[in-house]
Amino acid sequence: MKFRVAVGGFGAESNSFSVESPVREPKEKTFDRNLLLENFGKKTTIGGFLEVLAKAGLDIFPTSRIFWGPTGIISRESYEHYKSELIRRLENAGKVDGILLDLHGAMVVEGYLDGEGILLKEIREALGEVPVVAVLDIHGNITDLKVNNASALIGYKTNPHVDLYERGKDAAKLLISIMKGRVDPVVSLKRLPMLGPNLGMSTWSYNPKESKNLPFARIMRRIMEIERDPRILNISAFIGFPYSDIPESVTSVLAIANADSKLAGEVADLVAEMIWESRNEFIKVRPLIPVNDAVDMAINAPEGPVILVDVGDNAGGGAPCDNTVILEALLRKGAEDAVVPLRDPEAVARAITAGVGSTIEVDVGGKIDGRFYKPIRVRACVKVLSDGKYIIRGPHHGGYMARRKVLPKEAWKRADVGKTALLEVDGIEIIVSEGKVGMEQDYYKAAGVDPSQRKIVIVKSHQAHRASFESIAKRIIEVDTPGSTSPSYKGLTFKNIIRPVFPLDPI
Hints:
The protein is of the alpha/beta class. 29% of the residues lie in helices and 24% in strands.
């Protein structure tokens, strides 16, 4: 019998503290045959699905992939529309023997705390007991609703994320084994009272010595050792996404065994204990440095690039990317040879109107989220204007890992941050863009700046920048900036997180 498998994707990483909610328009929309055309032969999650299914000679039915990206709470209308579109396609597919989904795991919708869990529930109601295997981001919030309505959930094993393709292959292989009756997945979920300290939960580094000593990397190596047991189908350690602010926005472990609930439970408990015992190590790995101290360290460094990480304004965590706190300190302290990215459509428009070579007086940044910082008035020279479209050719978060400066073409990724302008103010370059800023070197290069040639480079990130910048950085400093993605949660009021929880409370 030739099995028929439906393939699709759906998700968002919702920051409930975002002032840009509700979000109506998805960032990525792909339908039907285009899902195959855009992913076959590519190093994506769905690319991994397709490679395994094609090699197995299975019939593939593409549906849709809708991703809102890292953003705020999703509007109910947008969510219902695209969820209905996906389910309608599944219902119209005829008989399918299995479903593979590329999810995120941290979607919050107006009125729903678990958008992807509801999607899985409605798919099960519509299609019955068809096996469903989904791949989730390591920052997914693992709810009972998700677990109870999927045959298996598989999480990324890397942070920064560079294994989407591999996890897609794992998911497809597991689904085939389920459809053929070779395995009967039994799931055990263990949640920890811990808001995952994302900065210190890296799983790899370009520096082999550092990789060896990272506490979460050590745990992940142990997980992969345990997975060599043929009775274990998969183990996922999810950091969770605290900024979603739902009861399950915590670190969790999901162990899947073959028809052995006792073994699954024992493995989940073992891995959870390793993570809990390492919680203080995670905090210490990459301490937050006050803004003034961090800027002084960068200015006084003997050589660059020194990467200052604006953690409170993480482009990959739903923040607006208009935090001016580090820029203000750089200007005040007379820093030079520095580059700062900011999202500011108004400043871009002013620069375009003035033209290259013009000098303009303009307020930059601080116009979207006024709770934590304000705009800064500058007199700037317009150096470069661009359309903001570029190709990410090097290693990048959310992509494919290869220890080389340029990835194979099948791992390239197109990006578009809207129109951009490069401004120069007293030796400091400011990249202003209409959309959220990039977290890889190619974003800066597309705007006219080679970050490897700058003394100080600001990135708006938590982990994502490391996939691209570790290879050139002389030093990376996490700066304790305020904002909707602050790792110390300053100024953020949780409403739904279950307390007590580490590190907010003594436990």
